Structure formats: C-alpha cells, structure tokens
Request: fold
Amino acid sequence: MNIAVVVGSTGGIGRALLEALEAQGTFDEVIGLSRRTIPNVDVVDEATISAAAYTVASRGTPRLIVDATGVLADGTAVPEKTIRAIEPETMARLFATNSIGPVLLMKHFLPLLPRQGRALFATISAKVGSIGDNRLGGWYSYRASKAALNQLVRTAAIELSRTHPEAICVAVHPGTVATPLSSPFAKNRLNVLAPADAALDLLAGFARLGPQHSGGFFDRHGAPLPY
Ligand SMILES: NC(=O)c1ccc[n+]([C@@H]2O[C@H](COP(=O)([O-])OP(=O)(O)OC[C@H]3O[C@@H](n4cnc5c(N)ncnc54)[C@H](OP(=O)(O)O)[C@@H]3O)[C@@H](O)[C@H]2O)c1
Reply:
C-alpha cells in the first residue's frame, strides 16, 4: 500500500491538498491528520505524533508526506510590526508550532519513508522566512520560526540522505493563499490563490523535485528560493 499523508488536513492548504490527492488517485490511501482527526496530531504534543506515525506505518508505506501545519498569529497575538512588540511567550509558541512541531514530524515520519524508490517529505514553510529575501522587516516571530524550520529541513535532509538516498525532504512556499491564516493580512494583496489552485501547483511542483533537491527551499512550482 502506497500512502500519502497530509498533516494539518483541516487547514486551508492542507484540506485542499487532501482533496487533490484523493481526486488524483495516485496513492492507494490518503491519510489526513490534524488535531481533529482520529488519530489526532497536535504538533506540540510529541506523543500524538509518535502514535499517529505508528498508525500510518501499520497501514502501509508513506511515499508522500506533507506537513501543512503552522500559525501566523494565535489568540490575541498579531505579527510584530516593530521589535517593541516582541513578546517572549508569543515567540516561543510560534517556534513550538512552526519549527519544533515540524521537526518532530520529521523525527517520527522520515524513518517510515521507503529506503528505495521515490519518496518525498515536504513541510509548508513561507518565503517570509527567507533571510536572503527579507527586505521589509517585521513579523519577527513568524519569520524566525520559518527560518529555523528551513534550517531543520536542511539538517534532516542531510541525515536522511545517508539511509534513504532516493528520498527528498524539502521546505516549500505555497504562495499567498486565501486561508484563515492569511486572510487578515492579505486584504490588499494581488495574486491571492484559491487553496485548490495552490494545492495543484504544489503537487505539480513536488513532481519536479528529485533527490538532488533534498534539503532545499522551493516555491510551489518547484523553483528554488534563497534561504
Ligand atoms: N496562506 C498563506 O498565504 C500562506 C503563505 C505562506 C505560508 N503558509 C503556510 O502554510 C501552512 C498552512 O497554512 P494555511 O494557510 O493553510 O493556514 P490555516 O488554514 O490556518 O491552517 C493551519 C493548519 O495548521 C494546523 N495547526 C496549527 N497548530 C497546530 C498544532 N499545534 N498541531 C497540529 N496542527 C496545527 C491547523 O489545525 P487546526 O485545524 O486543528 O487548527 C490547520 O490545519 C502554514 O505553515 C503557513 O505558515 C501559508
């Protein structure tokens, strides 16, 4: 059984990815995981991740795993416009969800990838996490948590290549997508994508990636982005 897994399958991008994968029918089974599924995955609770990985492994071989979890603003916290707005607790929560959560997914799910044949783990990062592309400033916690995520992807990809030379582990930017995460901040933006369109672009972009791209950061079409 070849399985595709979408973590964060109740989010705007995650749900669209799940639906696109089900419609394409490339995999024998498509498993969506979120805080609201059974088994549930809360990325700040490692026990839920290890239990879900165990369930996935019992069903078959995951050849595509997409992590579409993440937060930009939680509760009353909004992205910081100035360094004066930094609150350590808010920053720690964003790192817990956007950086540590995904690397815990890598810890428990990368070992499930097959050692032979094509397999891809992608985590949805964000271009604002690019240090080389940072021209506007602001959004300290979100930017830094995604930059940390990109470094964790790179580091995990190097380790993965030693045991899984054909596997691919990447960070991807989905574009600006109309979801609950972006909608408060994308009101005046042009080129805001529908989640279904972003999902199809992401899946087509994944197909353009090979083992030589593992550890990289890409846009939704598979074009490289600067770290
Ligand atoms: N939308 C954009 O324009 C845009 C641009 C660049 C990058 N991104 C990135 O794309 C990814 C998906 O975002 P989205 O736009 O689809 O946002 P969204 O609709 O708000 O979805 C976010 C997802 O993350 C999940 N999540 C949050 N905290 C979690 C936790 N502790 N454990 C497990 N799941 C958790 C949510 O689960 P619940 O349903 O349980 O809340 C939801 O499924 C994020 O990483 C985001 O940073 C989005």
Q: What stands out?
A: The pocket of NAP is lined by residues 8, 10-14, 34-36, 41-44, 68-72, 97, 101, 124, 126, 173-174, 176-177, 179-182 (CB under 6 Å). The first strand starts at residue 2 and ends at 7. The CA atoms of residues 105 and 197 lie 26 Å apart.
